[in-house]
Design a protein that fits this description.
The chain is about 35% helix and about 15% strand. The protein is of the alpha/beta class and about 375 residues long. The chain folds into 2 domains: about 180 residues, NAD(P)-binding Rossmann-like Domain (Rossmann fold, 3-Layer(aba) Sandwich), CATH 3.40.50.720; about 170 residues, Rossmann fold (3-Layer(aba) Sandwich), CATH 3.40.50. The strands form 2 sheets. It has an 8-stranded mixed beta sheet, sandwiched between helices. A 7-stranded mixed beta sheet has the order 9-8-7-10-11-13-12, sandwiched between helices. Helix 10 links the parallel strand 10 and strand 11. The longest helix is centred in the last third of the chain and has 22 residues. The chain is globular.
């Protein structure tokens, strides 16, 4: 199979979809990898490293898309990339279709096979291709929140760990999944006063054990959310429903209860956001203020640490990418139910039920699509 790796064009996105070791793995199985010149520079992988591993370095995105049977990316395609897609081409990347009617329509119109990293799901409910970036984003969320509390960016001027004789900052984390757990670990490590909420008591018990009891755990319900948000200096939103739009748990009224200059980091903004006031921002312009609360809603947080993130991502994605290349997407999906869960659109039809529900579209089960 011919594999293509274009340069990411999302603002301030410096990750690349493959490492030189990944190129070598494809080459060892007889597949061709074409990578756009400069695609790996932001992750500290020069063109020469990819060439040495067996890749063909080509100039321009058009050349990559034209020659490739499967496109590997990091982030969802943007409008300039829509016209480069062709019918039957495999697109393997983060899609987050539930949050974007425009992207969903674009993929359906181009009749591509869209496989989303974020909906590849194992039998135990875990999301193996989302987990590494969730780990990075969870850890970054505390850094981003701590800096958002500084007065130079409009925050209340509070130091999260406090100092002798001065209270430490209060952090509320909504959701105890991979993002929430990692935010909790770093928040506790910072010395903050951390509270985490989730609907699963077993998960809350696990988080409590991981941080050796240095956290307050609460069941997630309307009353507890309101109280925990109102008392927080920093709120981290980390709720996820695979493939679906994130539920809005933090309302504008909740924010009015927070002290002016408090901060909110919405890690779930690429799935629509957990706060009523959330909207996507960029690393270049990451913050805005609503109801006196500093919002940090960067939709590609791991892009700030591309070297670490690229390694972590490709460690997870390569096994699935190699299966698709070796067997073709359909045979690979039939063989692996987890990968089948990642198939979001095929031949102009939505094959993921949560995506269809998000946009009021007809859902076509994957096994009902011929070809």
């Amino acid at each position: 199979m011919r594999i293509g790796i274009p340069t990411e064009i999302k603002t301030d996105e410096h990750r690349v979809a493959i490492t030189p070791a990944g190129v070598a793995a494809f080459a060892a199985r007889g597949h061709e990898v074409a990578i756009q010149s400069g695609a790996g520079v932001g992750s500290v992988f020069p063109d020469g490293a990819f060439e040495a591993a067996g890749a063909i370095v080509v100039e321009g995105a058009d050349a990559v898309w034209e020659r490739s049977d499967m496109i590997l990316k990091v982030k969802e395609p943007l409008e300039p990339e829509f016209e480069r897609m062709r019918r039957g081409q495999i697109l393997f990347t983060y899609l987050h279709l539930a949050a974007s009617a425009e992207l969903t329509a674009g993929l359906l119109e181009r009749r591509v096979v869209g496989i989303g990293y974020e909906t590849v799901q194992l039998a135990d409910g875990s999301l193996p291709l989302l987990a590494p970036m969730s780990e990075v984003a969870g850890r970054l969320s505390i850094q981003a929140g701590a800096s958002s509390l500084e007065c130079l960016v409009g925050g209340k001027g509070l130091l999260l760990p406090g100092v002798s004789g001065v209270r430490r900052g209060r952090v509320t984390i909504l959701g105890a999944g991979v993002v929430g757990l990692n935010a909790c670990v770093v928040g506790v490590g910072f010395g903050a006063d951390v509270t985490i909420l989730d609907i699963d008591p077993q998960r809350l018990g696990y988080v409590r054990d991981v941080v050796q009891g240095h956290v307050t755990t609460l069941m997630s319900n309307a009353a507890n959310i309101e109280g925990a948000v109102a008392s927080a200096d920093l709120v981290v939103c980390s709720v996820l429903i695979p493939g679906a739009r994130t539920p809005r748990l933090v309302t504008r009224e909740h924010l009015k209860l927070m002290e002016p200059g408090s901060a909110l980091v919405d890690v779930a903004v690429d799935q629509g956001g957990c706060a009523e006031t959330s909207r996507p921002t960029t690393h270049r312009d990451p913050r805005y203020v609503e109801e006196g609360v500093i919002h940090y809603c960067v939709s590609n947080m791991p892009g700030a640490v591309p070297h670490t993130s690229t390694y972590a991502l490709t460690n997870a994605t390569m096994t699935y990418a190699l299966e698709i290349a070796d067997r073709g997407w359909r045979a690979a999906a039939e063989r692996d139910p987890a990968l089948a869960g990642g198939v979001n659109v095929v031949e102009g039809q939505v094959t993921h039920e949560a995506v269809a529900d998000a946009h009021g579209l007809e859902w076509a089960p994957l096994d009902a699509i011929s070809g």
